[in-house]
Amino acid sequence: MRITCNRQQLNETVLNIQRAVSSKSSVPALEGILLKATENELELCGYDLELGMTTKFEARVDERGSVVLSARLFGDIVRRLPADTVTLSVDAKNITTITSGPAEFSIVGIPAEEYPELPAITGETSIKIANNVLKSMIRQTIFAVAESDAKPIHTGTLFELEKGKIRLVSVDGYRLAIREEAAKCEEETNFVVPGKTLGEVLKLLSDDDEELEIQIGRRHILFQIGSYCVISRLLEGEFLDYRAAIPTASTTEMFVNTRALIDSVERVSLLITDRLKSPVRCRFEENEIKVSCSTAIGRANDQLEAKITGNPVEMGFNNRYLLDALRNAEGDEVRIQLNGALSPMKILPREGDSFLFLVLPVRLKSEG
Q1: End-to-end CA distance of the chain
Q2: What pLDDT score does 186 carry?
Q3: Is 252 among the domain residues?
Q4: How many domains does the chain have?
Q5: 298-333: buried (b, 16+ CB within 10 Å) or exposed (e) per residue?
Q6: In this structure, what CATH number is given to the domain that contains residue 54?
Q7: C-beta separation of 269 from 319 below 8 A
Q8: Backbone torsions φ then ψ of 112, nearest 5 degrees
Q9: Alpha-carbon distance 181 to 357, whole Å?
Q10: HEC profile for the chain?
Q11: What's the pLDDT at 185?
Q12: In the prediction, which pLDDT does 156 show?
């Protein structure tokens, strides 16, 4: 194999592909990137048996071939090469010579035959959706994905496809996030995509309205984003019946400036540390939200205006969970619905219901 390509393009590609590579594996090839030279193209692949990523770009190919190179070492070398072009040549023993300007490296490669094959998608359903729409949908739900493996199914986001509609749902036991959007899909189906996969997809999505294709198989999903192809296993198990968790009634409703509420909660949270945990206390009454917090190091009070109708109520929240929901709300104003001190806070857009966030309250100790 012998190819010449642009160093910057190779570096960008390796940085992206590296994220799908195993950092530690009993199969040495999985700690590497598979490079494949075909006619006028260099294809790269990273795979950790759960998430795989492939892409290709133009290169001058003098001799076809393939090799697996250590992702960490190859990435470090490419990043520090001095010239604009790079030449890679691989001999019969997989010794790979990397040349750029006066710099030359010879590193030991692994035969491409030792690299596992990526899964094929079978029994597929496919949908098309704009890059910027999917980006906003993932961003608005990924924060509520569970981090612990107590229920592995909740370490992913539920995708629900209905005719002409797509809904994403994440839940972690303390909060819930739902985002809905119109999409080109004919079939009704649902599946759960690992949060780690969605994190990688999010980094590859652009802000334009160009469409990408998602193919869903029985056990795997494939995202075709520009020149990148991301394939991932789906999570199996019983996802929470989230509809039953959403309060249907509300006794208090308010409209509040999103930024003002974030600033206020951030201010009183200055007294909260990893060692000194304490809920943020919110009192909603008479078109005013009073926010306070007290820990062993002191006490903070703040207040802001809001348009409130219904019963006055006082509730406590984990500051991080409340801030995550507010920061991911789109729009200058949000609509907040409450149904008593122990029912979850419901955060919605000012109008419509394109997103819905639930944040569970924390039981407050009475002050005395």
Answers
A1: 77
A2: 78
A3: yes
A4: 3
A5: eebebeeebebeeeebebbbbbbbbbbbbebbeeeb
A6: 3.10.150.10
A7: yes
A8: -60, -25
A9: 15
A10: CEEEEEHHHHHHHHHHHHCCCCCCCCCHHHHEEEEEEECCEEEEEEECCCEEEEEEEECEEEECEEEEEEHHHHHHHHHCCCCCEEEEEECCCCEEEEEECCEEEEEECECHHHCCCCCCCCCCEEEEEEHHHHHHHHHHHHCCCCCCCCCHHHHEEEEEEECCEEEEEEECCCEEEEEEEECECCCCEEEEEEHHHHHHHHHHCCCCCCEEEEEECCCEEEEEECCEEEEEECECCCCCCHHHHCCCCCCEEEEEEHHHHHHHHHHHHHHCCCCCCCCEEEEEECCEEEEEEEECCEEEEEEEECEEEECCEEEEECHHHHHHHHHCCCCCEEEEEECCCCCCEEEEECCCCCEEEEECCECCCCCC
A11: 79
A12: 97
One domain, residues 309 and 286: yes
Q: What are phi and psi of 71, to 5 degrees?
A: -60, -40
How confident is the model at residue 70, as a pLDDT? 96
Residue-level pLDDT at 8: 96
Model pLDDT, residue 126: 87
Q: Are residues 218 and 262 in the same domain?
A: no
**Of the residues 216, 242, 268, which one is the last residue of a structural domain?**
242
CA dist 302 and 285 (Å) reads 14
Q: Measuring CA to CA, which residue among 175, 171, 137 is closest to residue 320?
A: 175
261 shares its domain with 353: yes
Please report, for residues 6, 10, 36, 195, the alpha-carbon distance to residue 40 in angstroms, rounded to integers and kept in the order given: 13, 14, 11, 35
Range of the domain at 352: 246-359
For the chain, list residues with pLDDT below 50: 368
Q: What gap in Å lies between CA 365 and CA 147, rounded to an integer? A: 28
Retrieve residue 364's tokens: 């407050």
| Alpha carbon distance 138, 209 (integer Å) | 15
Separation of alpha carbons 50 and 63, rounded Å: 32
Sequence-ordered list of residues with C-beta below 8 angstroms from that of 154, at least 6 positions apart, any chain = 145, 146, 171, 172, 173, 239, 240
CB count within 10 Å of CB 148 equals 10
- Using the 3D structure, point to which of 242, 276, 297 is the last residue of a domain: 242
